[in-house]
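REVIEWER CHECKLIST
Item 1: Sequence provided? yes
Item 2: Single chain? yes
Item 3: Sequence as submitted:
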Amino acid sequence: MQAFALPLESCFTLGTMNFFVQRSELRDLYDKVAAGERISEADALRLFESKDLNALGAIADLARQKKVGNRASFIINRYLNYSNYCILSCQFCSFSRKKRDADGFELSIPQMVEKAREALKLGITELHIVGGLHPSLPFSYYVDMLKALSALNSEIGNRQSAIGNGQRLQLKCFTAIEILHLAWLAKKTVEQTLRELKDAGLESLTGGGAEIFRKEVRSAIAKGKESAEEYLDVHRTWHKLGGRSTCTMLFGHVESLADRVDHLRQLRALQDETRGFVGFVPLPYQPENNDIPVKTPPTGFDALRTIAVSRIYLDNFDHITAYWVGMGMKLAQVALSYGADDLHGTIIEEHIFHMAGATSPQLQTEADMIKAIREAGRTPVQRNTFYELIKVLADGAPSANETEPPSGKSKVLEDNLATA
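Item 4: Structure as written out by the authors:
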């Protein structure tokens, strides 16, 4: 399968892009990026501190063009949560519940399979599955869940189906803290646990749970969660087993700009070591319904500069995702000119960010994603879990699957929950 590292093509010439920076204080950093030189942590902090968003965007857009040309991607996926019961009490989390809470839930494996079958009718190529650290589910539940969901590929077989183009259903599951929890349940090492999950059908780890790596910040927002070192080691181990994953950063709460740079530094260092990350997803903090008050929630300016600095600094990452659930689709579209080259997925229904106060829709259709990318002046590309090319949708070409998701009256979809 063709990887999504594409020939250089752009709706802006480099000369036009240079207009925004030729008199900017950031001109030297533009020249560095144009020359293919790596920027330092001090450079990254300069970029974060600059108020020249036009110049910052021009530099990031140049870096994006050099990586992927004029294409922007999306994935047709479904988010599923197996449970929101969790033994932790992270201060920023509005999703987790205790067994005593009336709105807690736990799905059986047959329920998970049924939800996946329903979503397959919409043409999904990925199930994104995470949940809380359940206090009593055994390790066998997770292994059996992966096996049951992987078996859906044999049901798809070679027949013509909504998934189309011979694509398989890929399982992207579990955050690093979930893997540590499962290793504890199984009484095995992280490597042994990952091997067993991989054998059962796990294809990619999710990037959630990174938050901010600095210890003091991590203790303030997610006391009791895994350390930065543990998060990175889980992904390192997975990469050494041949696996790939995404990674994230939760920004706009109590961290400093220097903390963000340090977070990006550690991700870039691990990517230098393993080359196992396929994409980076900055996540704007949602302040409404949690226990971490902030004076100024993430603004549009902050979201765009964070996307831009990430694209410029993470020179060993091929893809930067603008997460429309947290940003809203309109700002995510703008982010495609500030270094992002991916809008994430259709998702179908998302609850983690919405329970925290996000006001974006619960889903996007394939047609919505294509329209948003085209409006931003990019060529839409449908991708798989690993950002590999499934199909390019040239201007005016309709999507292969115009099936709209069932209405809000569908109990199966109403009952589906999801996480970022």
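Item 5: Key structural point noted by reviewer: Residues 6-15, 158-163, 350-360, 400-420 have pLDDT under 50 and may be disordered.
Item 6: Recommendation: ____
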